[in-house]
Amino acid sequence: MRPSFAWIPGVLISLAAICANTVAGQGNPDSLSKGQSASNVDDPSQLFSRVEVFNDLQHFSGGTYLNQTVVRTNLKIGKRFTTRLDIPYVYSSAQPPEGENHSGLGDISFRLLGYRIYQTPLSAITASVEVSLNTASTPLLGTGKNIIVPMVSYSRMIGHKKTLLIGTLSQSNSVGGDENRARVNFSKMQAGILHPWSRRLWSVFSSDWFLDYEQGGLSMNLEARMGYAQTKYVHFWLLAGAGIFGDFILRYQWSLETGIRYVFPPRKR
């Protein structure tokens, strides 16, 4: 029998609202300062409290596609810690089992704690532990598993302190969930380059590598993102991706993502 997580969405949505109201009231001491590029928000070593809403469309072989609309809340705690909460609404074009829907709540995920371990003027190391819960309203819309994801990232400035190199390594392992669903056990390696063209415009190019230990094999996606800051606190972005090789479940044929972000302003003194 599939366990009931009906109580989780309401609790997490309430927590997200509380966090957002708290930050809105207190301000964000690490918010963008005068003369600072808005691209800093996409640097994993820079901790900003913010709310994001984005839509991600992924097309897979066989003509099926998956569309996710995600509300994400990031909350900075102190100088070195951060948390995050993702609440997705998912639509899948694949044929669902009889009596089930094509769309609904997906797997809610949250960052237990992110920590900036090390920082110099040119480089930084951050680490976090993230959890994805088996909360999807139907099996078609989620993994059917609870997943723990430890992650570490390294970033370094090059080229007159403008271009940022970013490397991220994570390991996803399923813990419990639906016994009839496949186990999750894979590593993800991401290498990216972030470059600000101006204080308002920046780009991120990245490659995502997936090493699947259950089915075996290596897969790869390439992604390009353009970000634009309407103001210091309101940002938009457009991301396009292409699957290069491999047959891992997260290796799509192509993807398109659009999003908006609000960065909480600095605390008034």
Name the CATH superfamily assignment: monomeric porin ompg
Number of helices: 1
Tell me the number of strands: 13
Low-confidence blocks of residues: 1-9, 11-31
Mean pLDDT: 86
**Share in helix:** under 10%
Rg on CA atoms, Å: 19 Å
Strand content: over 45%
Order of the strands making up the biggest sheet: 1-2-3-5-6-7-8-9-10-11-12-13
Q: Helix- and strand-based class?
A: mainly beta
Number of domains as seen in the coordinates: 1
The name of the CATH architecture is Beta Barrel
CATH fold naming? Porin
Map the helices and strands.
Blueprint (H helix, E strand, L loop, with lengths): L6 H20 L23 E10 L5 E13 L3 E12 L10 E3 L3 E11 L3 E10 L12 E14 L4 E15 L7 E12 L4 E12 L5 E12 L4 E12 L8 E10 L6
Antiparallel strand pairs: 1-2, 1-13, 2-3, 3-4, 3-5, 5-6, 6-7, 7-8, 8-9, 9-10, 10-11, 11-12, 12-13
